[in-house]
C-alpha cells in the first residue's frame, strides 16, 4: 500500500498493468502501483510518476505538513524533480514489446466462434494498447487487426458489438489509414444500421464512431450515401429520449457531413435546412431548395432566414431561375408569404412580369413569377397599402390591373391561368374588388374574360376565369348578362359544366352555378335563352340527384346546390311575361319542389331562394285559379227568388275562391305551405325572414278572401311571429313588409280589439307612422285606425274620390 503524506497507508489497491513480459519492480510507481509513463527522481534517489509525486507534494502543503518522501518518510530539503530519461526509454521499449505480444494474442482471440469472454478481453486489450500508443505519441498500424475488430460487429452478442464499436472508435481516432480500413465494404452501412437497431448505449457508441469517421473528408460522402444515414442522424439530433452525448455527437457528425453538397441536399430533404440556407449563394443550392417538400413551419423559417437573399438573387441573370423556384416553394404558405411581402418581393416581381426588352424574363420564368404572385395574392393581404411601382402604385392600382389584363391577353395559357388567379385573389378582397372591376370596365376586358369559359383543354385556366367572373358578378351583373346573352357558346358552356355527368360535385360545377345564380334574375332575355337551351331541365335533374344522394361532394355541395336553386328560381320571375314559363313550372311541379327545398335544407340561401320562388308562383295563383261556371237559375227561381239555394262547389279554395292546386295554379294553401313559411319567421337571418313574409303576404292581396287567409295564418300560429318582426324592427324592409301585413290582419275586428290593448304593438305602429316612408306611413295610419288609435272621420266627411 502507498503511504500518505502523514505516513499512513493509502487505500488504493495495487493494480498492475497486465502483460506478457515480466514487469520489473523499477517500472512501478510506488504511489500509483502502475507502470510509469514519465518517471522522475527525488534528491534522495527515489523514483515516482511525475504526476503522482507532484500531487503528493501539493497535498502535504495543503495539509500544513512537512514535505516528506513517501518511501522513507524523511523530510525533503528540496522538491526538485529530475527526469529519469534512461528509465523512461527502457519502459517504452518494454511496453512496445509487451503491446506487440498482446496484440498478437488479441488477433488470435478475435474470431466469431470464440467465447464472448475471450473476445471482450481481446477488445479491451486493443483499446488499452491504442490509448497507450497515442499517449506516448507513437503509432502502430495493424490493418489485419482493424479488420478483425470490424468483423466483431457481426456478432450476435449486443455486448460484443457494443465493445467492438467502442474499440473501433479508439482505433480510428486521429488515424486516417485506420478509418479507410474500417470504411471498407459494408461496414459503414452496418454502423448506420446500429443507429436504429441497437440498445441506447449501442446507438451512442455507433454515433461516436461515425463522428470519428466523419472527420475524414473522404468518408463524408460515403457515410451520406448510405440509405437512411442522414435521416437517422437528423432524427437523433431532435430526440428527447437519447442522452445528451448521443444528440451532440449526431449533431457534430452532421456538421462534418456538410462538406458534401449532396449531403446538404439530403439534410434539407429531411428537415435540416440550415446548411442548405447557409450555402444559398450557390445556384445549385437555391435550385434544390425549390425542389424540396417543405412544411409550413419550415417555409416560414426559410422566408425569415434567406427571403431577402433570394429576392437579391432575382436580379442576377444566372441565379434568378433558381431564386424564383425557391420563392415559389415558400410563398405558398400565408405566414411566409407575408414575410416575403414585408421583405420587398412585390416590386421586383411586378417589374419582371411587365418588363419587355433586353434581359427580360423568359416565358418559363414569367410563369413561375405569375405563380408566386398568385400564391401571395391569395392570402388576402391589404394590397392597396403595399407599393409596387416607382410612383407608389399598388397591386390594385388601375394601371397595374390594366397591365395584368393586357398581359393575360398576350401570353400563353399557363401564365394566363396564374394571372387570372391573381385577379381572383384581388377580387376576393372587399377592399380591392372595386378597383379591379373599374379597370375591367374601363379596359373593356369583360368580353375577353368571358371567352375563357369556352376553354376545353385547360381546366385550371377555365376554372380561374369562372371564379373571377363570379367574384365580379355582383358589381358587373348587367354587363355579364349582356355578354352571355349576346353569344351562344359561353352560356351553353356554363350550363354544360354544371350539367356534367359526375358522381362527385366538382369545383368547376359549383363556381359555374354560383356565377349564373348572380346574374340579374329579371333579365328575361337571359331566362329565355336558358329556357330555350333546356338549361332548367338540367338544373332540376341535378337538384333531384343531389337530394337522392346519387351525387355527392361535401366540399362543394352547399355552394353548388345554392346556385342551382337560385338559377331555377329565376324562371318564376318570368311568369307574367311568358306562358312557356308557366307551362314549364306546371309540367315540372316547381311549386312542390321549392316547397320541399324550403323545409328539407337548413341552408339560408336555399330557403331564401325557395321562398322568393314561392312568392312569385303564389302571385300568379289568382290568374291561374279555375273559377267554376254556375248553372243558370230555373224559371221558377228567377220569378220566386225565395225558392233559390246557393250552389255548392266542392274543392273550392278558401282564399282564391276557385279550383286550385299546388301543381297547376301554385296555390300555397292547397300545398299546405303556410305552416312551413310561418316556421321561417323565427329565423335569425333577416334575408330568410323577408322572403317568407313576402310569400305569406301573397295570401292577403286585394281580390282574395283576406279574412280566411288571416284565419289560416292564425291557425298556423303565425300571428305572434309576424308581430315580433314588427316589434323587433330589425331592418327597414322587414318593417315595411310587417306593417303591410299587420294592417291587413287588423281588418279582422276580433283581432283588432285584442291587439288594440297591446301597447307595444301600438308603439311599433306609431313609430312606423312617424318615421317610415310615405307609403308605409299611410298603411300604419290605417292600422292605427283599425285599433281606434286614430279617429275615423269617414262617417263625418264624405269620401274624396281618388284622382
Give a brief outline of the structure.
This is RING-type E3 ubiquitin transferase. The chain is 61% helix and 1% strand.
Plain-language structure description:
This protein is mostly helical and 803 residues long. 61% of the residues lie in helices and 1% in strands. It has 42 helices and three strands. Strands 2-1-3 form a three-stranded antiparallel beta sheet. A hairpin with a 5-residue loop joins strand 1 (39-41) and strand 2. Helix 14 packs parallel to helix 16 (320-330), helix 19 packs parallel to helix 21 and helix 32 (604-619) runs parallel beside helix 36 (686-697). The longest helix is centred in the middle third of the chain and has 28 residues, at 459-486. The chain is elongated. The model is unreliable at 1-19, 136-140 and 795-803 (pLDDT under 50). Residues 22-101 form the U-box domain. It catalyses: S-ubiquitinyl-[E2 ubiquitin-conjugating enzyme]-L-cysteine + [acceptor protein]-L-lysine = [E2 ubiquitin-conjugating enzyme]-L-cysteine + N(6)-ubiquitinyl-[acceptor protein]-L-lysine. Its EC number is 2.3.2.27. Pathway: Protein modification; protein ubiquitination. Keywords: Repeat, Transferase, Ubl conjugation pathway.
Task: Spell out the key features of this protein.
42 helices; mainly alpha; elongated; 803 residues; 3 strands; repeat
Number of helices: 42
Shape: elongated
Q: Identify low-pLDDT runs.
A: 1-19, 136-140, 795-803
- Fraction of residues in helices? 55-70%
Count of strand segments: 3
Q: Whole-number radius of gyration?
A: 47 Å
Q: Please report the distance between the alpha carbons of the first and last residues.
A: 137 Å
Rounded mean pLDDT score = 87
Class from helix and strand fractions: mainly alpha
Strand content: under 5%
Task: Please summarize the sheet with the most strands.
Answer: 3 strands, antiparallel
Strand order of the largest sheet: 2-1-3
Amino acid at each position: 500500500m502507498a503511504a500518505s503524506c502523514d505516513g499512513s497507508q493509502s487505500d488504493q489497491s495495487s493494480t498492475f498493468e497486465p502483460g506478457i513480459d515480466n514487469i520489473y519492480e523499477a517500472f512501478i510507481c510506488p504511489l500509483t502501483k502502475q507502470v510509469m509513463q514519465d518517471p522522475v527522481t527525488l534528491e534522495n534517489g527515489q523514483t515516482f510518476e511525475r504526476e503522482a509525486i507532484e500531487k503528493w507534494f501539493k497535498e502535504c502543503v495543503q495539509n500544513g505538513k512537512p514535505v516528506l518522501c513517501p518511501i522513507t518518510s524523511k523530510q525533503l530539503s528540496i522538491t526538485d524533480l529530475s527526469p529519469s530519461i534512461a528509465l523512461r526509454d527502457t519502459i517504452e521499449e518494454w511496453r512496445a514489446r509487451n503491446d506487440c505480444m498482446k496484440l498478437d494474442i488479441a488477433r488470435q482471440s478475435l474470431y466469431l466462434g470464440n467465447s464472448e469472454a475471450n473476445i471482450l478481453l481481446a477488445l479491451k486489450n486493443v483499446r488499452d494498447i491504442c490509448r497507450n500508443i497515442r499517449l506516448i505519441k507513437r503509432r502502430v498500424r495493424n490493418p489485419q487487426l482493424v479488420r478483425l475488430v470490424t468483423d466483431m460487429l457481426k456478432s450476435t452478442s449486443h455486448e460484443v458489438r457494443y465493445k467492438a464499436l467502442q474499440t473501433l472508435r479508439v482505433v480510428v481516432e486521429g488515424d486516417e489509414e485506420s478509418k479507410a480500413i474500417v470504411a471498407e465494404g459494408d461496414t459503414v452501412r452496418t454502423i448506420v444500421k446500429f443507429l436504429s437497431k441497437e440498445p441506447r448505449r449501442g446507438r451512442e457508441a455507433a454515433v461516436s464512431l461515425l463522428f470519428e469517421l466523419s472527420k475524414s473528408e473522404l468518408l463524408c460522402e460515403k457515410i451520406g450515401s448510405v440509405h437512411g444515414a442522414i435521416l437517422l442522424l437528423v432524427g437523433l439530433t431532435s430526440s428527447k429520449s437519447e442522452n445528451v452525448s448521443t444528440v451532440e455527437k449526431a449533431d457534430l457528425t452532421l456538421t462534418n457531413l456538410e462538406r458534401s453538397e449532396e449531403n446538404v441536399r439530403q439534410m434539407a430533404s429531411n428537415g435540416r435546412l440550415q446548411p442548405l440556407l447557409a450555402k444559398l449563394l450557390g445556384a445549385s443550392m437555391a435550385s434544390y431548395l425549390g425542389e424540396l417538400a417543405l412544411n409550413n413551419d419550415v417555409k416560414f423559417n426559410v422566408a425569415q432566414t434567406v427571403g431577402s437573399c433570394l429576392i437579391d438573387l432575382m436580379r442576377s441573370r444566372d441565379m434568378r431561375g433558381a431564386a424564383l423556384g425557391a420563392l415559389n416553394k415558400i410563398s405558398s404558405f400565408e405566414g411566409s408569404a407575408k414575410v416575403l411581402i414585408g421583405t420587398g418581393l412585390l416590386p421586383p416581381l411586378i417589374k419582371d412580369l411587365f418588363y419587355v426588352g433586353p434581359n427580360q424574363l423568359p416565358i418559363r420564368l414569367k410563369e413561375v413569377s405569375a405563380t408566386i404572385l398568385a400564391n401571395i395574392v391569395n392570402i388576402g393581404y391589404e394590397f392597396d397599402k403595399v407599393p409596387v411601382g416607382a410612383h407608389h402604385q399598388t397591386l390594385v392600382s388601375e394601371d397595374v390591373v390594366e397591365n395584368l389584363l393586357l398581359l393575360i391577353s398576350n401570353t400563353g395559357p399557363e401564365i394566363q391561368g396564374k394571372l387570372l388567379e391573381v385577379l381572383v385573389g384581388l377580387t376576393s378582397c372587399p377592399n380591392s374588388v372595386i378597383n379591379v372591376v373599374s379597370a375591367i370596365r374601363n379596359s373593356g376586358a369583360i368580353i375577353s374574360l368571358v371567352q375563357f369559359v369556352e376553354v376545353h383543354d385547360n381546366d385550371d385556366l377555365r376554372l380561374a376565369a369562372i371564379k373571377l367572373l363570379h367574384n365580379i358578378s355582383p358589381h358587373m351583373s348587367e354587363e355579364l348578362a349582356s355578354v352571355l346573352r349576346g353569344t351562344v357558346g359561353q352560356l351553353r358552356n356554363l350550363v354544360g359544366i354544371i350539367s356534367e355527368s359526375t358522381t362527385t360535385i366538382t369545383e368547376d360545377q359549383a363556381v359555374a352555378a354560383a356565377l349564373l345564380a348572380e346574374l340579374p334574375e329579371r333579365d328575361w332575355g337571359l331566362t329565355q335563352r336558358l329556357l330555350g337551351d333546356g338549361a332548367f331541365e338540367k338544373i332540376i335533374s341535378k337538384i333531384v340527384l343531389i337530394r337522392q344522394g346519387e351525387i355527392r361532394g361535401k366540399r362543394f355541395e352547399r355552394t353548388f346546390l345554392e346556385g342551382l336553386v337560385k338559377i331555377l328560381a329565376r324562371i318564376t320571375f318570368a311568369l307574367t311575361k311568358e306562358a312557356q314559363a308557366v307551362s314549364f313550372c306546371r309540367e315540372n311541379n316547381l311549386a312542390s319542389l321549392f316547397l320541399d327545398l324550403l323545409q328539407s335544407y337548413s341552408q339560408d340561401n336555399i330557403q331564401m331562394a325557395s321562398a322568393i320562388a314561392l312568392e312569385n308562383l303564389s302571385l300568379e295563383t289568382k290568374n291561374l285559379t279555375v273559377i267554376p261556371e254556375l248553372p243558370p237559375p230555373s224559371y221558377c227561381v228567377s220569378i220566386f227568388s225565395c225558392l233559390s239555394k246557393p250552389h255548392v262547389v266542392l274543392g273550392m279554395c278558401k282564399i282564391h275562391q276557385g279550383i286550385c292546386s299546388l301543381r297547376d295554379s301554385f296555390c300555397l294553401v292547397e300545398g299546405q305551405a303556410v305552416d312551413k313559411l310561418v316556421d321561417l319567421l323565427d329565423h335569425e337571418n333577416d334575408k330568410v325572414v323577408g322572403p317568407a313574409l313576402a310569400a305569406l303576404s301573397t295570401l292577403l292581396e286585394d281580390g282574395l278572401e283576406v279574412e280566411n287567409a288571416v284565419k289560416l295564418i292564425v291557425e298556423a300560429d303565425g300571428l305572434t311571429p309576424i308581430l315580433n318582426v314588427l316589434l323587433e324592427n330589425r331592418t327597414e324592409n322587414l318593417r315595411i313588409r310587417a306593417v303591410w301585413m299587420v294592417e291587413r290582419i287588423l281588418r279582422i275586428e276580433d283581432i283588432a280589439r285584442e291587439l288594440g290593448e297591446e301597447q307595444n304593438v301600438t308603439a311599433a305602429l306609431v313609430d312606423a307612422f312617424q318615421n317610415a316612408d310615405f307609403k308605409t306611413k299611410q298603411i300604419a295610419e290605417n292600422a292605427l285606425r283599425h285599433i281606434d288609435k286614430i279617429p275615423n272621420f269617414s262617417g263625418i266627411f264624405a269620401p274624396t274620390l281618388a284622382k
